[in-house]
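Q: Convert this sequence to structure tokens.
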Amino acid sequence: MHGRYVINLIFALHFSIKMKRNSVSIAFFVLLVVAVFCGCSKEKSPFSEASSPRHMNELRQIDALLDVNPSVALDSINRLKQDGNVESWSSLDANELKLREIQARYKCRSILADGPDLEPVIGFYDSLVLLFPDDSELRFLRANAYYYKGVECDDDVSAFAHFMKAYELANDSMKSADEPKCNRFVALSCTRLGEILYYYGLFETACSYFQLAGEHFASIEDWVAAASVKRNEAAVYQALKQYEKAISAFEEAESMHPVSEAFSYHAKGGLLFDQQEYDSALFYLEQSFGQSDPFAKTDAAAKLSEIYRFKGQVDAEIYYTRYFVESSLHESSLTSHRMEIEYLLKKDNLDNPSENTGNHSFVIPMLLVLVLLAVIAVMAYVIVRNRKRISHIENKISTIERKHLQEKADKDLEIEQMTQELIDTREQLENVTKTTFEESWNSFSNSAIANKIRLSVEGKDIMIKSVGMYPKLKLKEVDLLELVRVANGYFNDFSSRLLHDYPELTTSDMRHCCLALLGMNDAEIAVLEGISYSGSNRRTKKIVSTLNMDNSLEQSVLMYLRKYW
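A:
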């Protein structure tokens, strides 16, 4: 049907309502009937520039600008609105202008809350398409109205319904597979649908929409957009734990339009994790956890928790486990919207109700009851599953706390036993008959450990420059401890008194003193302690300076022992 007939119809209605005289109204009503009759008797054809309202050329210029320079298109729309003639435009032109304004604002990222409402525009196109069912251009305008209404929606379910309708209308209005504008619009609609489906965990359906979008982008050779939806497809494979497919899809996207290999980190980490190569997987999974993909982040948290549990790093394990539980609880909050989207997917046609209306009064309530029961069942399952997980985590935390408490108690008991042994040893030493200093000195000098140490360096010409030639002479820790213990036994807790009287000294300094008592020089002590000669010499000077004596280290320590004998 030609465009002029709808214009005649619209204006006839408009003036028949406004005119107050009945005769004029009747005349315009007759004109309306004649216009409809003539229009129905003519062969149906789409709108053309010759048969359209007078502003079609301006609107097409704006439409062309939207793809190349949306800011200029928005300026053109604002100028048209400021001219003041928009109120006299036909309904067809006025509604298309509103649609173009929303498109321009969206592409300029300036959609405002007070912008034009697309609901009347959708209603207008829905009614007009009944008169022009075969006009592909009108269907495409209608598809645009549904798409941008979906963009404005705050509710994902409503947005999904509008995007689904836009996809169906645009797909029907495509004249050929190589028409760029329709191909791009269908690809964008499929991408939007795939993104919503992916967010609500409907992975397989989302993957089919991403694949369809990629085919349409490839047909117009938009490789940047094709690569982007291919990465979305790879993300779906990641969520399905099909990591090899995901890596292949990411590599294909990189070949179309290189961006970054970071998108494939989670797939690589998941593949390495399945192969139990935990150390290699750790880097990729931690990088994936820092990205924005919610499903990849949740899966990475679960795997990282398992890896850190295997490594025994409790704090890291608890951190990632808590994140996994919280994200699982968030998934349960999306269940109702997911069920609604699944219901929309199962409908053959969103706008045409079933012909079997006689059973609707019974079927629809039953469907609603079944959906409600399914939602309750899913939420109950998720809650029970998460409670089990939380209970398992709490049990693990309690086990770890009990283990730490038991270890602390064992250490306290060990310290208490060692303290009691020291007290008993001290009491035994106090009860031993006192001997002279010379007797104690001779006993110390001839002790087994003293003889062992002297024999280790006996016959070796150890000098300053040859210290590094005897690495095997370094004493074991047990030998040094035994030497200190023997000195304490013969000289009444020599080490405790020395460290108490001179807090500047360390346990290493005290061992140095015990070696010096055996008559060892700095070179020999350096070999026995496993340090450099210069380090041994500095330590000797430090101890002598601390003791505030002018003698050698051996004589200084002997004088200290005699002083407190």
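The CA atoms of residues 376 and 553 lie 85 Å apart.
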